[in-house]
Amino acid sequence: MGEIALLGLEFYGRHGVHPEEGRLGARFVVDLWLEVPFEGRGDLLEETVDYAAVYALVERIVRGKRFYLIEALADHLAEELLEAFPRLLRVRVRVHKPHAPIPGVFRDVYAETEKDRS
């Protein structure tokens, strides 16, 4: 097996439980780890996962849907990726909310999920 990582995908979205989060929106960052078979593969795009298409799917979901929880967003992204890309064996999705409405100083907040075809 092998892994393809797409890290630091940034999108503007309207996720969160507070009404102003839905109204104003914020920046969200998505990290992906995609497990795909590498052994015996050639050098053709059709033999792996097209990460430009992965990016487009993630962008469409993060920008186009609303989730109250980043946990739900991460889970939905994982499910959609597995459904859309048959060669994808396992996916780990991390959704960062760097400007979460938390009273205090913090570096990052994220939710992470991992799913496979089983």
From TrEMBL:
Signal peptide per UniProt: none
Gene3D superfamilies: 3.30.1130.10
Protein keywords: Folate biosynthesis, Lyase
GO MF terms held by the record: dihydroneopterin aldolase activity
Record CDD domains: DHNA_DHNTPE
Highest taxon listed in the record's lineage: Bacteria
Domain (Dihydroneopterin aldolase/epimerase) ranges: 4-115
Record family assignment: Belongs to the DHNA family.
Its job: Catalyzes the conversion of 7,8-dihydroneopterin to 6-hydroxymethyl-7,8-dihydropterin.
Protein's name according to its UniProt entry: 7,8-dihydroneopterin aldolase
